[in-house]
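Model the whole thing, not chain by chain.
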Amino acid sequence: MARRVLHDEYFRKAKAEGYVARSAFKLGEINERKRLIRAGDRVLDLGCAPGSWLQVASEIVGTRGVVVGLDLQRVTHEMPPNVTTVVGDIDEVDAGELVRLGGGKFGVVVSDMAPATSGHGDHFRSVRLCRSILGVLADVLRPGGNLAMKVFEGEEMRALVMETDALFDEARAFKPRASRDVSSETYIVAKGFRAGRAS
Ligand SMILES: C[S@@+](CC[C@H](N)C(=O)[O-])C[C@H]1O[C@@H](n2cnc3c(N)ncnc32)[C@H](O)[C@@H]1O
């Protein structure tokens, strides 16, 4: 399918279904295929604005679960009652505050974070954001927990998958159908956080 057609198809679908952004379908598909988030989970969404992943995660976890989001930008769209958002930078994050807002360590961390600028060097900036995420996992993710994080593909991709794999029982790259028109965007999906256990 041509890029433009695919883009428009998801854009229309997001609008019709009340999602604030078309990215909603990426998390939907990741979760359908990889079963990361379940009803009742505590989910942390890093780089959550404008908020469509918050909406999707909120639906999956249901009323027994909670979703906490962090972003440089404020989420202005009204969110369901089981969603809390914080304005902040992943590099200066107060992990204790996020865990407190979630009511305990999270079962799942998701991130659709993208570097603020777009152009040459995005791959390296995106990898740096992913490494910041890996750096805070021990403080926010419970043992056995799951992760999905976006990365722009490039020469550091393999090393990043291996670094992630060393922290989890398994880690793989996965490209949802809804990402196909964004050529270099993919997700690293990892399950079974080892939290200090030897790999
Ligand atoms: C593609 S958007 C996320 C879309 C979101 N998943 C949704 O469905 O609405 C990427 C977000 O990453 C955020 N971001 C980029 N760098 C960040 C950082 N250092 N700390 C926190 N958020 C960051 C941006 O502000 C932006 O809102």
